[in-house]
Write a structure and sequence with these properties.
Cytochrome-c3 Hydrogenase, chain B, 3-stranded antiparallel sheet, alpha+beta, about 15% strand, globular
């Protein structure tokens, strides 16, 4: 005899939700039989706003698409504009961009650490990770003037050069982070409760991952090796030595291990960038933004964010404003179509853990 179905509303003001969204759950007992993602709490329409601004003003919208991860969106927009115009970027700027992107990856993964552990009641990790993330935010504040929104990677290069002594501070922070990650791994991955709550939970079959267009750690957690930095290298990633971790478990545990290993690879990349950093210019100056007109045409550029591949499409009609700007992110797939599929048959206690493991960013859906 089946139990009576009950409807539960998770979010939007629930600590287990990764942003301004709600998941409407239909449960029988404590088992999810249907899940529907509901958004509509932000209404930002950044892509449409971009059509009312010039090419440089539009750049300031990019960092707001996904608050925890602004830099890959700036990177995608900058490269799309540069491709459309044919503007060259100085070699030093390319290295600085990679440095910023990998620091951003580490900072975002620190937030993921706290969210993933906290969703299962391991709150100590969250206290650690937010504090340790501040050391990375300190670097961004010195470099860009902002801790969260940086508006630093823009068409033509980067907004300013590295401050004196900045590279040494980065290396010192990496030494600390590498040592600190051992504590995270001891407490989280060697924890019997964390293993039990994540192994065999939230499974994404590899064929379903391909069908849904899954990217990033959720895809690599299915054993599928896909990373834009390797498959379609940009900036100077083709000059750097690093690995793309994969796992075969297809569950929360596998996705967590992919992220854990990727943090070590980011530190490895950052050290190489500092070691190889060339001298020279950091910015190929654009014309007066009020008079800057790009040639007619369109361009699309992809970047590997922590949630996976993100892409920016820009189209120009030859005027000082974009005719069209469109962003391709992982959030819609991961937080809507995939989440609704994966949650069916799972326990309601695991809903937040599964959501965190997918790396959802609801504000991006309402961009």
């Amino acid at each position: 005899m089946r139990e009576k179905a009950t409807t539960l509303y998770l979010g939007p003001q629930h600590p287990g939700i990764t942003g301004n969204m709600m998941v409407r759950l239909k449960v029988e007992g404590d088992t999810v039989v249907k899940a529907v993602t509901e958004v509509g709490y932000l209404h930002r329409a950044f892509e449409k706003l971009a059509e009312q601004r010039n090419w440089l003003q539009t750049f300031t919208l990019m960092c707001r698409f996904c608050v925890p991860e602004p830099d890959p969106v700036e990177e995608s927009y900058a490269r799309a504009v540069e491709t459309l115009e044919g503007r060259e970027v100085p070699e030093r700027a390319k290295y600085i961009r990679v440095l910023v992107l990998e620091l951003a990856r580490l900072g975002s993964y620190m937030l993921w650490y706290g969210g993933q552990a906290g969703s299962l009641g391991l709150y100590t990790i969250g206290q650690w990770s937010v504090g340790d993330r501040n050391y990375i935010l300190d670097l961004f504040e010195e470099l860009t003037g902002g801790r969260v929104y940086h508006m630093y990677i823009w068409p033509g290069g980067v907004r300013r050069d590295l401050p004196a002594g900045f590279e040494e501070k980065v290396l010192k922070t990496m030494d600390y982070m590498e040592q600190r990650l051992k504590d995270y791994e001891d407490l989280m991955f060697d924890n019997a409760i964390f293993r039990k709550r994540t192994q065999g939970v939230g499974i994404i079959e590899p064929e379903k991952a391909i069908e849904h267009g899954v990217v990033g750690p959720p895809l690599r957690g299915c054993g599928i090796k896909h990373d834009v930095r390797i498959d379609e290298p940009y900036e100077v990633y083709d000059k750097l030595d690093f690995e793309v971790p994969t796992e075969d478990g297809c569950d929360i545990w596998a996705r967590a291990n992919v992220r854990r290993r990727e943090m070590h690879q980011s530190i490895r990349i950052i050290r190489q960038v500092i070691d190889q950093m060339p001298k020279g210019e950091f910015y190929n100056k654009i014309p007066n933004p009020q008079k800057w007109r790009l040639p007619q045409g369109d361009a699309y550029e992809r970047t590997e964010a922590i949630r996976g591949e993100v892409g920016m499409y820009v189209a120009s009609d030859g005027t000082e404003k974009p005719r069209r700007v469109h962003f391709r992110g992982a959030a819609y797939v991961h937080a809507v179509t995939l989440l609704e599929h994966v949650l069916v048959g799972e326990n309601i206690a695991d809903v937040s853990a599964i959501m965190n493991s997918l790396g959802t960013c609801p504000p991006e859906i309402e961009r």
